[in-house]
Amino acid sequence: MGKPHQPGTYPVSGVGLGLRRSMLDEWQAEPPEGIDFLEVAPENWIGLGGRLGERFSWFTGRYRFVTHGLSLSLGGPAPLDETFLQRIKRFLDTHGIACYTEHLSYCSDDGHLYDLMPIPFTAEAVSYVAGRIRRTQDILERPIAIENVSYYAAPGQEMDEIDFVRAVLEEADCQLLLDVNNIVVNSINHGYDAEAYLKALPADRVVYFHVAGHYVEAEDLRVDTHGSDVSDPVWDLLDKAYAHFGVVPTLLERDFNIPSLAELGTELEHIRALQARYLPGAHTGPAADHG
After folding, report:
1. CB 51: neighbour CB atoms within 10 A?
2. What is the spatial distance between Cα 49 and Cα 139, in angstroms, rounded to a whole number?
3. What is the DSSP letter of 277?
4. Judging by beta carbons within 10 Å of its beta carbon (0-12, 13-18, 19+), is residue 240 exposed, middle or buried?
C-alpha cells in the first residue's frame, strides 16, 4: 500500500491536542490559541447526528484532524472487523481526514477486553499482524500508522520489542505514530535504554509524535495513564527526538483528570518551545528547565 512518506512530510504540523467531549463547551465559547491540529478516537464520533454531530463538524471545519483508533484489535485472534473498517473509511472521507492510526496491540477475542494487550514478540506474530495491517490499508485506501504501545508483560517473547516493531513496520509497509511517553514507560519497566530505542526507529515512517503523563507506581514501575502532567523524563526524550528526527508534529494526550484548556496550554507551549529549538536558524543549546 504505497511507500512510507519522506522525512519531514507529515499529515499535520505543529502542536496538537486530543479532543474530548468535555472540552467542547469551553472550546467553542473561547477557541484556544496555539493548537494546530486535533486528534479523536473515531469510535467516539462515528455516526453522530443532531447537535453533537453539528458540533463535531464545527471543529473539523476549522482544524486539521488525525484519528487514533481504540478497538480495531490489529493483533487479536478474532477475524478483522471489515464492516467496522468500512464505517471508519466513510468517517475519514466525510470529514476529510487523511491519517488513521491504531495501537500495535489487541483488545478483543470473543468480545472486547477493555484493555490493550501485548502482541507476542515473535516472527509468527509479525507476519500475522502485518497481514492484518495490509488488509486494513487496502480497505481504507490509505496507509495507516501503528503506535508503539506500553506493556507490562511480554508473553512468549522471542525477539526484542524494537526488533518486533521494526519488523512489523517493514512487512506491513505502514507508518509509525511514535509515542514518546510509551518509550519512557517501557524503558523503565523492562530495563532498556530509551534513547537507543528511539534512534533505532525508522525516521521515514514517522507521521507524528504522542506525549502524555504517566503514574509512578514504584522506582522500577511506571503506569501509562494519560492522567497527569508530562514528566521531565518524557520532556527530555522529546527534546532528543526532535534532535534526531527534526521537528515532527506532536500531540498532547490527556484522557483523565483533564484540566482547563488554559492549563493544558502550558504544556502545549512547552512542546512548541522545544520544537522551536530545532527550526532552521535556531540555537540548539541545552534545553530549558522543565519546572
Report:
1. 8
2. 25
3. T
4. middle
The three three-digit cell numbers of residue 123, written as one number: 516472527
Q: Is 3.40.720.10 the CATH number for 15-276?
A: no
Q: Residue 111 and residue 76: Cα distance in Å, rounded?
A: 11
Domain residue limits, the chain: 15-276
What would the grid cell of residue 107 be? Answer: 483488545
Single out the residue of 134, 128, 125, 104 nearest to residue 116, CA to CA.
Answer: 104
Instruction: Report the distance separating Cα 114 and Cα 107, nearest Å.
Output: 6
Q: For 211-265, write each residue's pLDDT tens digit.
A: 998 655 657 655 666 557 899 999 999 999 999 999 999 999 997 678 888 889 9
C-alpha 142/C-alpha 137 separation (Å) is 6
> Helices marked H in the chain — which ranges?
24-29, 50-60, 82-95, 123-140, 161-172, 180-190, 194-200, 232-245, 261-276
**In 6-23, which positions are buried (b, 16+ CB within 10 angstroms) versus exposed (e)?**
eeeebbbebbbbbbeeeb
- What's the rounded Cα separation, in Å, for the pair 17 and 31? 13
Model confidence pTM above 0.85: yes
Question: Which secondary-structure segment (H or E) carries 17?
Answer: strand 15-18
The Cα 88–Cα 136 span in angstroms is 10
